[in-house]
Amino acid sequence: MLRKLRPSFSSFLIGLTAALTIGPAVVVPAYAQTTGGAIVGVVSDVQSGVLPGVTLTARNAETGVVRATVSEADGRYRMAGLPPGRYDVKAELGGFSVVDLKDITLTIGLEVTHNITMQLQGVQESLTVTGQAPVVEATRTDVSGVISQQQIESLPLATRQPVALALLMPGTSQDAVRPRKFNANLGAGAFTNAGAFLIDGLWNKEPCTGEPRQDFPQNAIREFKVNLSNATAEYGWTASGVVSIATKSGTNLISGEAFEYFRDKSLNTMNRFEQAAHDTKGSPKPNYRRNQFGASIGGPIVKDKVHFFGAVERTKEDKFVTVSTGKSQFYSLLEGSFPEPEYSNTYFGKTDWQINSNQSVFVRFAGQQQDYTCDSCGGSAAYNSDGGINQPRRSVAAAHTWVISSRALNEVRGQYSFYGYYPHPVSDTTVFDFADYPAQRLKQFVPTFAFPSATYGWPAGLYVLQWAKEVRDDLSITTGAHTWKFGGGVRSMPSQDDVPPNNGAWTFGTDQVFDGTPATQALLRNPILFTATGPNTSIRRDLPNVYTEVYVQDEWKPVSNLTVNLGLRYDYQAKVLNTTLNASDTSIFPTFGTARDLSAFYDFKNRGDKNNFGPRVGFAWDTRNNGRTVVRGAFGVYYNPIWATLMRGEQTNFRQAAINISNPSYPDPYGGRDPLAFASTAPQNISIVDNGLQNSRAVASTVGISQGITSLMAIHADVVYNDMEGVPLLTNINPRANGTTGNRPNPTFARIDELKNLGYNKYKALLLRLEKRQDKNFQFLVSYTLAKGDGNIPFTGNSGRVTDSQNRGLDTGPSANDRRHVLVASGAYLLPGDVQIGAVWTLRTTMPFNAVAGADLNGDGVVSDFVPGTTRAMGNRDNATLLTAVNAYRATLGLAPFPASQLDSNDYNAVDMRVNKSFALGSHRKIDLIAQVFNVFGRDNLAASGGAGGQNGVPPGWTLNVRSDVFGRINQAYNRQQAELAVRVGW
After folding, report:
1. Can you tell me the mean pLDDT for 55-64?
2. Which of 53, 113, 111 is nearest to 82 (CA)?
3. How many CB atoms lie within 10 A of CB 424?
4. Cα–Cα distances in angstroms (integers) from residue 847 to residues 764, 787, 908, 948, 987, in the given order
5. CB neighbours of 800 closer than 8 A, spacing ≥ 6?
6. What is the pLDDT of residue 346?
7. Distance separating the N- and C-terminal Cα atoms of the chain
8. What DSSP state is assigned to residue 18?
9. Where are the alpha helices (DSSP H) in 76-189?
10. In 3-state terms, what secondary structure has residue 360?
11. Which of 208, 202, 204, 84 is nearest to 152 (CA)?
């Protein structure tokens, strides 16, 4: 049966209502719940005497929304929780002249200080301050920056997903990010999914892998803040950085836009491998086309009170993937360019209501429907070596802001979301009902065939459904020189998955003629490994997951030019460690009470990491008390969630047989026996979780300085150190003695993979940033990163496994996504005639890679062992030692040695440009004609973002198997040149 639409919109509303109903009864959030800014200062008279009781009123120039407060006994005032925008502030006190401050610009999370001097009545004073936010933030203790609306609208952006502009900041990358997952590695260099992603202060990550849950239309994003390291105590569940996005709201002016961005093969230059196929085989230029179109509109429902904003966007891309193994004598029929169509529909709606000057609410709904053909095909991976994914995603959220008094502000927020994950093969995009296994679905699965130079097949695909309920609350209280914040949150994110049987995977030690047809399958010889799970059986798994957090934070100004931030938070993750299970439940643990009883491994009741206290301390010293030179430093302890996907194996043992056969017979690995009968007698691999497993922990420290050059230009320098430990890694605790042939300590089982806190990563970086805010027609930002990461984490995604459990030191080496140098320069210039030019230049040095032996050298049933004499990530870091060991190993196999020129690098050098010509039509109407060119100079950038060994569903890019003659080569490339034309109509 085909999949039905679910869940209904009404279920979202019911869930949200429940969340907001209980919200005020708990003390909740974390992670900088507020996306607003604050205007603070001291009111005094001309003799510097402080003035209490001054009425200060801030009015948003765009929406007319008003916020009022009164200065305290010491003259201090604070207006917090203000949405990003332009504000006019008026100060009034009987007997004194009114003071007006004009055009104060607040960006996300910004606190600006404006001290006010009032004169005796009779002198009307109006002060006009710059419309720009300060380029040096005198009270900021963390390492962060804001990507503004001006940058989003003026710089070239290939995806129209603004989070990609996070890469303008130092200490960021998108290495190892899965295609179409608009993720980013942030600051700490830990791993891909360690950062927090927030939309309007609410969580936007899914619980199984930690990737972003859904995308939003670009027109719905106002701006976002990128926190690179040492977030304050209100941020949690992040071992690295934070991206906090503020969405748009309607204004008092009805406005909107409609647009179309267009790409076509006539605007493209073939990449290196497409060109080679064209020149040698006469392959035609891929028939590429991309349409991205949408619209947005916003305005008042009740002027100065109620506003609406909505946006929709659709992307339809007929793209192609090129398979190029470098061994066409064996795989010529697998090679070529293949269609890889995909689409994504995003939509967004938001209503803001200013109840009165002290209370406001917003409600928003956002959704995305996406489908693409292949996650990681191309290069050495054949067209059907992976599947596509159909992903429906929806969320509804609401928030209430209440100015309780001139000293107190409370914000409560809630969210309900759904995420569906329905993988499918490239040849059949049909999606079925969850936990339904008709014959048509089972026919989608194709056995995997892995050779040294190529892979083929898609053996299975599990469906995943995720729901999330979130409620949080922040309370801010200002008392003299102290601003206290108290908060906490609860987030329930259960998931379910169905696991169909798969058709197994074959691994061969030599390249052989193969095209996927039964004829060539029949001719294959000498496999070295066969693996399969669940022959003829399917199961369903339920994975509950609850995050709870509380924090307290004090921003203290002991003197006017010193800010000290002190905080403590507590994080607790419940239920994720299978603590709701009972080891005697035979529906989940079918071998209970038998010779293969696993209950001795489990202590569910006592699992859980309950001591996750995270102290935070930071300071910002405005050395001359003029906002020009600020020295800052911070220290903090941070925790990362345990991703639910890591718990799946423990719920699978013996419910689905885990078969692993070395040197199997072919084509029948079972030797004529029934697969289930074979599995019932042969020792099986099992997966367990260390009962003492803890959340990974990072200790981060920074020290830096910001120096204003002009009022709109500054340079920032920060030194970052992040020491992360306790990353969950699988290790075999039942290894064979004496390598591949000895007995196991526990002969009842084969490999016993235990998830333990074995991984660590140490990251050191110098982050430099020179920025010039928009003024006199131009802006620019230049970022440079000098970084070094070392550790033993095989991947940078969710987890990984120890390569050799009896020699764990082999995994020690550079981080999998280590790039020593990164330079990103961006800028925009407005020419006469309303012509704007924007450009981004990106330069990144190469990542490392592994040298894999292509055989199971340690008898653990996994063909991932390093070449003897090498360690993890040695490629492109110590090539001389690597090649000496590789060539010695190849000599034992009768294979020729490799020269140093064999090893490719994935250094990246590209310039992207955008030209925009505006035509004014009057009454706020205009037409923009836009042209963008990506990789203007056509440099061949080889695609290998998966890094050392491939990770998180991203292939390494390099051929890692040294038995292949193309070891060390990268067989994929990014576009040489790609142009885009667009038209945008605004009103």
Report:
1. 94
2. 111
3. 21
4. 16, 12, 10, 7, 46
5. 729, 730, 759, 793, 794, 951
6. 97
7. 46
8. H
9. 149-154
10. strand
11. 84
Angle at 562 between CA 558 and CA 568, to 5 degrees: 75
The residue among 772, 914, 902 whose CA lies nearest residue 836 is 914
Q: Give, for 414, the enclosing helix (H) or strand (E).
A: strand 408-424
Q: Which of 112, 39, 135 is nearest to 82 (CA)?
A: 39
Chain center to CA of 428? 29
pLDDT digits (tens, 9 = 90+) for 437-490: 898 988 888 899 999 999 999 887 899 999 999 999 999 999 989 999 999 999
Q: What is the mean pLDDT of residues 953-978?
A: 88
Query: Residue 847, SS3?
Result: coil
Per-residue pLDDT band at 191 (split at 50, 70, 90):
low
Q: Show the domains of the chain with their CATH numbers.
A: 37-128 (2.60.40.1120), 255-576+608-986 (2.40.170.20)
Confirm if 967 and 854 have CB atoms less than 8 A apart: no
Neighbours of 827 (CB within 10 A): 19
**pLDDT of res. 657:** 85
d(CA 634, CA 165): 25
Structure tokens at 226: 């990128």
Closest C-alpha among 705, 713, 716, 714 to residue 622:
705
In 481-622, alpha helices (H): 518-522
Query: Mean pLDDT, the chain, as a whole number?
Result: 90
Which residues neighbour 153 within 8 Å (Cβ) at sequence distance 6 or greater? none
Residue type at 264 in one-letter notation: D
pLDDT tens-digit series, residues 684-704: 999 999 999 999 999 999 999
Asked if 800 contacts 806 with a C-beta cutoff of 8 angstroms, the reply is no
| Cα distances (angstroms) measured from residue 710 to each of 123, 628, 695, 775 | 31, 8, 45, 11
Q: Please give the biggest Cα pair distance in the chain.
A: 103
DSSP state of 285: P
Which amino acid, one-letter code, is at 453?
S
Alpha-carbon gap, residue 8 to 918, rounded angstroms: 42
Four-point Cα dihedral 216, 220, 223, 225, nearest 10: -30
Q: What percent of the chain stands above pLDDT 70?
A: 92
Cα(141)–Cα(118) distance, integer angstroms: 31
Residue environment code for 125-145, b if the CB has 16+ CB neighbours within 10 A, otherwise e:
eeeeeeebbbbbbbbbbbbbb
Beta-carbon contacts of residue 282 (< 8 Å; ≥ 6 apart):
none
Per-residue pLDDT of 889-931, as tens digits, reads: 999 999 999 999 999 999 999 999 999 999 999 888 999 999 9
Q: Which two tokens stand for residue 536?
A: 């003829």
Residue with the bigger pLDDT between 675 and 249: it is 249
* Distance in angstroms (rounded) separating the CA atoms of residues 905 and 378: 18
* Nearest residue to 575 via CA among 551, 601, 609: 609
Count of positions (residues) in the chain: 987
Mean pLDDT lowest among 123-137, 294-308, 571-585 = 123-137
Nearest alpha-carbon partner for 968 in 861, 856, 868, 846: 846
**pLDDT (tens digit per residue) in 846-878:** 999 999 999 999 999 999 999 999 999 999 999
HSE-CB at 884 with a 13 A cutoff on CA atoms is 7
CB 787 within 8 A of CB 780: no
- Using the predicted structure, report yes or no on whether residue 617 has a pLDDT greater than 50: yes
Average pLDDT over residues 286-312: 97
DSSP string, 208-241: TT--B-----GGGEEEEEEEEE---TT--S-SS-
Three-state DSSP class for 278? Answer: helix
Q: How many Å apart are CA 35 and CA 735, to the nearest integer? A: 51
Structure tokens at 758: 């074995």
